[in-house]
């Protein structure tokens, strides 16, 4: 049985030379059938399994992951957590996630290292300032914390920004969310895995779904590289690979897969204690707890499943970064990588039943689903448990592409995509 | 940096090209097109992992063309001028 983490357990292990720690989650053999199956061991899949057990008492659940848990986008993102969205539907969704994040370390008994260091979206012209004021108003009306920053406010939180008179991207102000920040991405996956496993969920890695079992027009299970596994309710949270699985289930999705890159510098002393995003340069940046400068930017230009990213986009990102922070010109880059993200025309996720009854979707988070993990998990769990939408997930159903009720968050979601 | 073959200009830097969507996605015709057919045309995509046929534009010469490409290896398999055949 997994052990509860506490100051006392840390102290004891210190005395015992750290030799008594147990596996954080069990690795059982797959059973022939479950009450529910979740495909994809990223943050959304693991959270779904956890909330199925915790909120709905359904613990005969398997999470099936083709590689290792958190090896997809959940372990590849730039860890920004925020809820500075524009439309009420998005505010409900990301607001729920943000509130759950604030209690997550305690709920999971696992430190996800949420650090609410604040985030500023810069405005580089008076026109952008007007849009900024509109966004701040919308956020405040929707009950989300937001402040309109003056250039001096920006200077206070990010003094190393390029405020020179000849700067190519001068600062006119910004949109500030003080509760925004970062969380340790691996810890979110591992924390949910450990908590779900404690509640009886089977987490099965190296288990790829290769096909669906369809009987009487309903999804009744999956074929995997570790045999056939049956369940009458199946949820799928496979991010950039949603179209691949949808094709096996016989339908198409409004998704294009693209690579999204990030990179980190060598670690340096604390120099930037907030998250800064510039729509002008298309770059956002923060400093990790280890001291690395974590750099993210826009999508790659070419539909792709190649999990590596391409050079022109990286060059654009680095050029933009140096416009913002010339001081970073001395840094060495340590690592660059990419994840495959599922981009939807209105930049909002898809949550709901798929065209194949019994198979439910959680996908389309594109470049921004890390911050949404607790909400995505809660909502997919409710769909699997009850077959019905929560009021928060209803607007995100796949049917919006036929009814035309799109939730176009392209601007609110921050980075161009 | 990758080179893409424009059927008119030859191999050029990838940054000169713009992706224009999946080939063969034909706009529905007529006045009573069912909603699902519109949704399909406007939004639904095959988005294959592997070989795919796509419309691209070479921004320097403004010509559209069909490129066959592998989305995993990024290898270009063919590149042909756009004609009625892409509608197939
Ligand atoms: C570089 C980068 C930066 C980002 N920055 C941010 C950020 O700062 N803030 C933010 O909120 N979001 C960010 N995102 C987006 C965020 O990471 C994703 O939206 C989120 O992690 C999606 O979680 P997921 O659980 O849906 O997917 P994933 O974590 O990708 O998990 C899906 C899992 O499904 C598995 N899978 C796929 N196919 C199969 C199959 N056939 N059988 C079994 N398993 C399968 C995969 O192996 C994978 O582990 C970023 C993404 C990238 C790539
Ligand atoms: Zn050309």
Helix content of chain A: 25-40%
Order of helices and strands of chain A: HEHEEHHEHEHEEHEEEEEHEEEEHEEEHH
The fraction of residues assigned to DSSP E strands of chain B is: 35-45%
- Number of helical stretches of at least 4 residues of chain B: 1
The portion of residues forming beta strands of chain A comes to: 15-25%
Q: Got a strand count of chain B? A: 6
Mean pLDDT of chain A: 95
Do you know the CATH topology of chain B? Folate-binding fold
Order of helices and strands of chain B: EEEHEEE
What's the CATH H-level superfamily name of chain B? Folate-binding superfamily
- Shape-level CATH architecture of chain B: 2-Layer Sandwich
Which CATH first-tier class of chain B would you pick?
Answer: Alpha Beta
How is the largest sheet of chain B built, in terms of strand order? 3-4-5-6
Give a count of the beta strands of chain A, DSSP E runs of length 2 or more. Answer: 19
Tell me the structural class of chain B. mainly beta
The largest interface is: A-B, 22 and 26 residues
List ligands, each type once: flavin-adenine dinucleotide, zinc ion
InterPro entries (chain A): FAD-dep_OxRdtase (IPR006076), FAD/NAD-bd_sf (IPR036188), Rhodanese-like_dom (IPR001763), SoxB (IPR006278)
Protein name (chain A): Sarcosine oxidase subunit beta
Catalytic activity (chain A): sarcosine + (6S)-5,6,7,8-tetrahydrofolate + O2 = (6R)-5,10-methylene-5,6,7,8-tetrahydrofolate + glycine + H2O2; sarcosine + O2 + H2O = formaldehyde + glycine + H2O2
Subcellular location (chain A): Cytoplasm
What does this structure look like?
With 417 residues, chain A is of the alpha/beta class. Chain A has helices at residues 7-15, 43-56, 88-102, 104-108, 126-141, 151-157, 185-198, 242-249, 311-324, 373-386, 400-403, and strands spanning 36-39, 61-64, 80-81, 119-123, 147-149, 173-177, 181-182, 202-204, 209-215, 218-224, 227-230, 233-236, 256-265, 275-278, 283-287, 293-303, 333-343, 350-353, 359-363. In chain A, the strands form four sheets. An eight-stranded mixed beta sheet of chain A has the order 5-6-4-14-15-16-13-17, with helices on both faces. By secondary structure, chain B is mainly β. In chain B, 9% of the residues lie in helices and 41% in strands. Chain B is built from one helix and six strands; from the N terminus they run E-E-E-H-E-E-E. In chain B, the strands form two sheets. In chain B, strands 3-4-5-6 form a four-stranded antiparallel beta sheet, with no helix packed on it. A two-stranded antiparallel ribbon of chain B has the order 1-2. In chain B, a hairpin with a 5-residue loop joins strand 5 and strand 6. The model of chain B has no long low-confidence stretch (mean pLDDT 93). The A-B interface holds A 241, 243-244, 247, 252-257, 301-306, 310-312, 345, 401-402 and B 1-2, 14-15, 18-19, 35-36, 38-40, 42-50, 52, 54, 71-74. The structure holds flavin-adenine dinucleotide and zinc ion (ZN). The site of zinc ion has 7 residues of chain B, from loops. Chain A: It is an enzyme of class 1 (oxidoreductase). Chain A: Belongs to the SoxB family. Chain A: This is Sarcosine oxidase subunit beta.
């Amino acid at each position: 049985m997994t052990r509860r983490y506490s100051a006392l357990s840390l102290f004891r292990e210190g005395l015992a030379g750290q030799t008594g720690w147990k596996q954080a989650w069990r690795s059982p053999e797959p059973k022939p059938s479950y009450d529910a199956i979740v495909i994809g061991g990223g943050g959304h899949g693991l959270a779904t399994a956890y909330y199925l057990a915790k909120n709905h008492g359904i613990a005969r659940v398997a999470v099936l992951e083709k590689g290792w848990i958190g090896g997809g986008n959940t372990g590849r993102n730039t860890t920004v957590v925020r809820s500075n969205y524009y439309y009420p539907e998005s505010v409900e969704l990301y607001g729920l996630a943000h509130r759950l994040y604030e209690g997550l370390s305690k709920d999971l008994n696992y430190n996800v290292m949420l650090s609410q260091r604040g985030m500023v979206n810069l405005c580089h012209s008076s026109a952008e300032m007007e849009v900024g004021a509109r966004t701040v108003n919308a956020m405040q009306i929707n009950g989300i914390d937001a402040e309109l920053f003056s250039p001096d406010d920006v200077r206070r939180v990010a003094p190393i920004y390029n405020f020179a008179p000849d700067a190519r991207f001068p600062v006119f102000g910004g949109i500030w969310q003080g509760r925004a920040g970062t969380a340790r991405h691996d810890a979110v996956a591992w924390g949910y895995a450990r908590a779900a496993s404690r509640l009886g969920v089977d987490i099965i890695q190296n288990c790829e779904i290769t096909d669906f079992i369809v009987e009487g027009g309903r999804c009744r299970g999956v074929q995997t590289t570790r045999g056939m596994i049956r369940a009458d309710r199946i949820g799928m949270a496979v991010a950039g690979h949603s179209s691949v699985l949808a094709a096996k289930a016989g339908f198409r999705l409004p998704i294009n897969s693209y690579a999204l890159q990030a990179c980190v510098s060598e670690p340096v002393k604390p120099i930037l204690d907030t998250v800064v995003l510039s729509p002008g340069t298309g770059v956002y940046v923060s400093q990790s707890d280890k001291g690395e400068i974590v750099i993210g930017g826009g999508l790659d230009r070419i539909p792709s499943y190649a999990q590596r990213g391409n050079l022109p986009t990286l060059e654009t990102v680095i050029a933009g970064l140096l416009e913002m922070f010339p001081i970073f010109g001395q840094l060495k880059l340590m690592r660059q990588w990419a994840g495959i993200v599922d981009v939807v025309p209105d930049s909002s996720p898809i949550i709901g039943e798929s065209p194949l009854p019994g198979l439910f979707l959680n996908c389309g988070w594109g470049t921004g689903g890390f911050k949404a993990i607790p909400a995505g998990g809660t909502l997919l769990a409710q769909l699997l448990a009850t077959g019905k939408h929560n009021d928060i997930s209803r607007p995100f159903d796949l049917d919006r592409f036929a009814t035309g009720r799109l939730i176009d968050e392209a601007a609110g979601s921050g980075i161009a995509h | 940096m990758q080179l893409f073959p424009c059927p008119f200009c030859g191999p050029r830097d990838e940054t000169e090209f713009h992706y224009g969507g999946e080939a063969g996605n034909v706009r529905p015709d007529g006045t009573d097109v069912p909603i699902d057919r519109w949704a399909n045309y406007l939004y639904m995509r095959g988005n294959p992992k592997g070989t795919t046929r796509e419309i691209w534009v070479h921004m320097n010469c403004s010509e559209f063309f069909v490129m066959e490409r592998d989305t995993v290896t990024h290898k270009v398999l063919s590149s042909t001028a756009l004609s009625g055949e892409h509608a197939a």
